[in-house]
Amino acid sequence: MEDNQILNTNTQNQVSEQSEGNVETQPQDTKTFTQEELDRILTKRLEKETKKWEAKFNALEESQKLSQMNEEQKAEYDFNKKLEELQQREQELEAKINQYNQQQYKATITSQLQEAGLPVSMADLLVNMDAESVATQINAMKDLFSNQINAQIQAKVQASANVPTMSNEQPKALTMEDISKMSTQEIMQRKAEVDKVVKEYYMTK
C-alpha cells in the first residue's frame, strides 16, 4: 500500500515537472523609442525637475530675505508680492479676453465671406484689419470675383455661338417657279438639281 502511494506521488511529480517544462514563456512586448521620442521625454523630465528646483530655490531665497527683514519691511515685501501677482493675473485675463475677441471677430468675418460667396480662408488675412477695412476689402473682392465669373460666362456663350449647328430641316425641293426666279449663276451652281427638275417637269407633260 505504501509502495503504491510512493509510486503515485512520484508519477504526479513527474507529470508536474513535464507540464512545467512544456509551458512556453511568452515574450513580453517591449516598446522601442526613437531618438526623437527619447529626447522629448528627457527634455520634459528635465524641465519638470528644473521648475521644481527653481521653486525650492525661490522659496529658500524668500525665506532668507524675510529672516533679515523687520516687520515693516516684511509687510512692504508681502504687499509688493501680492501686487505683482495681481498684475500678472490681470495680464493673463486680458490676454484671454483679447484671444476670445479675436476668435469672435474672425467668426464674424467668416460669416461675411460666406454671405458674399467668397472663400472663408480669406478670414485669416482680414482678421488683423479693422471692421471698415474688412468691409471695403470684401466688397472689392466680391466685385472682382463677379467680374471674373461674368467674363467666363460670356466667353463660354461666345464659344458655343461659334460652334456650327446641324440643321434637321430638309432643303426645299426646287420647282420650275424657283428656277425661273434664279439667276444664271445660281442655275449653274445648282445645275444638277435644275436639270433634274426640268427633266421631271417635261416628263409629266
UniProtKB/TrEMBL annotation:
Residues 43-106 form a coiled coil. InterPro entries: Gp46. Residues 1-32 are annotated as: Disordered. It holds the Pfam family DUF4355. Keywords: Coiled coil. The keyword Coiled coil applies. This is DUF4355 domain-containing protein.
